[in-house]
Amino acid sequence: MKTLSWISIGSIGLGLCACGGGSSYTVGGVVTGLSGSGLVLQDNSGNDLSLNTNGTFVFTDSVKDHDNYSVTVATQPSNPTQSCSVHNGSGTVDGGDVTHVVVTCTKQGGFAFVANQLSNNISVFAINSTTGVLTEVSGSPFASTGTSPASLTVDPNGKYLYVANNTSDNVSVYSIDADTGVLTSQGSPVTTGTSPDSVTVDPTDSYAFVANLASNNVSVFSIDSSTGLLTEISGSPYSTGQEPSSVKTDPGGNYVYVTNFSDSTVSVFSLAVSSGSLSAISGSPFDAGAGALYIAINPKGSFAYVANETAESISAYSINASSGALSAVSGSPFSTTSSPESVAVAPNGDYLYAANVTSKNYVATYSIDTSSGALTLSGSPASTFGTFPVFITVDPAGTFAYTANEDSGDVSVYTVSSTGVLAHVTGSPFAAGSEPRSIAIY
Question: Is 244 within 8 Å of 259 (Cβ atoms)?
Fold first, then answer.
């Protein structure tokens, strides 16, 4: 009896100690895309942490429970020069370690990867950093290990290329030679749902997501950091609306957004960081325009834009940081008077570019009101000098923009001015394979 009483009193004493406010917790997260040296992070304007490699990090000084934390970049990397941004970087410690601060580092793109759907191969180009001119690398185009490659993406660390193969219902994985851009197949393609039409990787380089157009769902895969290979997680695939055509995460890796072409909606899921599992958020799906085809999210994760092909418009939304919910901004949807297939936001968040396949096959530039998210057509549209531009992207440094021109089998390249205006690069467009459908830059 005495022993039991002693244990009970001791337990009560420990509990009182914890309630007295003495508990403290660590602050950390993941850094991706870092290839230079000299990155220094700070928490609460102190507690400097120097990082030279990608992966997880933890600040040495802990933060008391219920106190605030604020992670910022004190020094940007150099050699090569890079720009790193912090997401999920501030908040209040709430009874546990903070583990989901995301630091994403980018640099000017060195290679362009193009999925050629009809010729079943992948073109790889070296990018001239001064002129933007594309030069096909040795061995390009590389044969696809699946059929009808429709979408591709490079992981945030630039080590692997993931390709969604629309006809063979799978995803191929390739390693990327950092010096030459040469691709090497990694294992056998991994089975997805039916007619995968879009693939993306979350900013922590932990999960890959595939929108399956014909089976109306999204497949989720965990990524082996040492090989790049994919393993489908328990519970995958997750149901979406009808004909999911594109998939993206927010910059902090908290939510997954899927456009549904036939439903004219956007499905939104919260992402469980520890497992990769998805849960539909309250209010999902959210209305878009007819033929919702592609979604782009601005670098701060505060606005989202959807290209509505059939409605000839762009839907603009503000994103609730706490829930991921979408709310239409004033004036949305914005008429394009042409069918937008794809949209891309400039890395500075000031401009939106839309690839319009009808009329004159042009790229329209819109200025973004950074307070409201509203769009204003800016200047004269830029002609692609190719036909049926189905995809547009901007390189991570905001130096060049690229369109994949499906019918003419080529890639148009533009320089991006400080005012967002696009100007053709000499020699553009550059020949690719048959029916190029997607471009990734790293």
Answer: yes
How would DSSP label each residue in 234-286?
TT-SEE-SSSEEEEEE-TTSSEEEEEETTTTEEEEEEE-TTT--EEEPTT-SE
| Residues in CB range of 10: below 8 A, 6 or more apart | none
Architecture of domain 108-441: 7 Propeller (2.130)
Distance (Å, whole) CA 317 – CA 292: 14
| Predicted confidence (pLDDT) at residue 357 exceeds the cutoff of 80 | no
Residue 320 is encoded by which pair of tokens? 């609730």
* 19-105 topology per CATH: Immunoglobulin-like (2.60.40)
Question: What does the pLDDT look like over 323-346, one tens digit per residue?
Answer: 999 999 999 999 998 899 999 999
φ, ψ (nearest 5 deg) of residue 135: -125, 120
Task: Report the C-alpha gap between 174 and 183 in whole angstroms.
Answer: 6
Which residues, 6+ apart, have CB-to-CB distance to 16 below 8 Å? none
Q: For residue range 88-103, what is the model confidence (pLDDT) as tens digits?
A: 999 999 999 999 999 9
Instruction: Round to whole Å and give the CA distance between 121 and 438.
Output: 12
CA dist 398 and 151 (Å) reads 21
Task: State how far the Cα of 75 lies from the Cα of 69, in Å rounded to an integer.
Answer: 18
Put simply, whether the predicted model's pTM sits higher than 0.85 gets the answer yes
What residues does 49 pair with on adjacent strands? 41
pLDDT for residue 43 is more than 90:
yes
Amino acid at position 70, single letter? S
Residue given tokens 């090497």 in the structure block: 184
> Residue 283: which of 317, 252, 250, 311 has the closest Cα?
317
Residue ranges covered by each domain of the chain: 19-105, 108-441
